[in-house]
UniProtKB/TrEMBL annotation:
Name the record gives this protein: Glycine transporter domain-containing protein
Keywords per UniProt: Cell membrane, Membrane, Transmembrane, Transmembrane helix
Alphabetized InterPro entries for the sequence: Gly_transporter
GO cellular component: plasma membrane
Membrane topology, from the record: Multi-pass membrane protein
Coiled-coil region: none
Localization per record: Cell membrane
Glycine transporter domain span: 13-84, 98-172
Pfam families according to UniProt: Gly_transporter
Family: Belongs to the UPF0126 family.
Major site of localization recorded for this protein: membrane
Length: 266
């Protein structure tokens, strides 16, 4: 029996992820009723954009997307399929979700491993791994004038890539088993990604803090029997909102009262 080479499986998953993200780009192009050029462009950006960003930042030679013919075969085939077939059915959507998250694990692990191999600290290495996984989708959304989905408002995505990158760091730097780390990242991202879509797991929403606001008053202070109504300032609102406006006539009356009190005391 010949020795099994895990790199063959990883490359298969990698090309499948490129094709799956190319299909996602093609689905966006179909939603906007683009022509074949739009399908090809969005498929290329979705499938290979993150890896291009990573390789340009690492400055390690030509981006792999420009030198690996398998990537181009994957994205062009994906563009042709998306242009021909409507992928809006339930089974197609589920298949794309599985391929997307499994490929995310492969891309995150590959990007993290490449950054570690060039001597980067583990934290920027994980960041580059996440960029490899989500960069293409972010560029695709910007090209069609949409807020990138990775910014939030939906189920977990980039968070899962962070977990996969952290696992790759542990297996590479501490255990020195990169192939095992690659496999673990693929399985983890695939399982967590599918569960997050199924259970709609999300990160917590922003917290609304209120900062107490002082109230400007002139003249004699009145004593109130009841408790004062609590007021505050919410970030984003004008600081002068609901403040009393002091007119020049009020200032003159206040000064006259003060002069009168001084004369009475004298």
């Amino acid at each position: 029996m010949e020795h099994w080479d895990p790199s063959v499986m990883f490359r298969t998953v990698d090309i499948a992820a490129v094709a799956a993200n190319g299909l996602l780009g093609g689905a966006v192009a179909r939603a906007f009723r683009f022509d074949i050029v739009g399908f090809v462009m969005l498929a290329i950006v979705s499938g290979m954009g993150g890896g291009m960003i990573r390789d340009v930042l690492l400055n390690s030679g030509f981006p792999v997307a420009l030198t690996d013919a398998g990537y181009w075969v994957g994205v062009l085939a994906a563009a042709a399929v998306a242009y021909t077939i409507d992928l809006g059915s339930r089974w197609a959507d589920r298949l794309l979700i599985v391929l997307d998250f499994v490929g995310m694990g492969a891309w995150t692990a590959t990007g993290t491993l490449k950054a570690l191999g060039l001597g980067l600290h583990w934290l920027p290495a994980v960041a580059l791994g996440v960029t490899t996984a989500v960069g293409g989708g972010a560029i695709r959304d910007i090209m069609v004038n949409r807020i990138p989905a990775v910014f939030g408002g939906n189920s977990l995505y980039a968070t899962i890539a962070v977990i996969g990158g952290a696992e790759m760091v542990v297996f590479q730097e501490l255990l020195h088993r990169p192939n095992v780390g690659m496999g673990v990242a693929i399985v983890t991202c695939g399982v967590l990604g599918i569960l997050s879509r199924w259970r709609n797991w999300r990160l917590p929403a922003p917290v609304d803090l209120t900062v107490p606001r002082p109230k400007l008053r002139l003249g004699r202070r009145r004593i109130r029997r009841g408790p004062l109504k609590e007021q505050g300032w919410t970030p984003g609102e004008p600081l002068t909102r609901n403040l009393e406006t002091v007119t020049p006539e009020q200032i003159r009356r206040h000064r006259r009262r003060r002069r009168r009190r001084v004369r009475d005391r004298a």
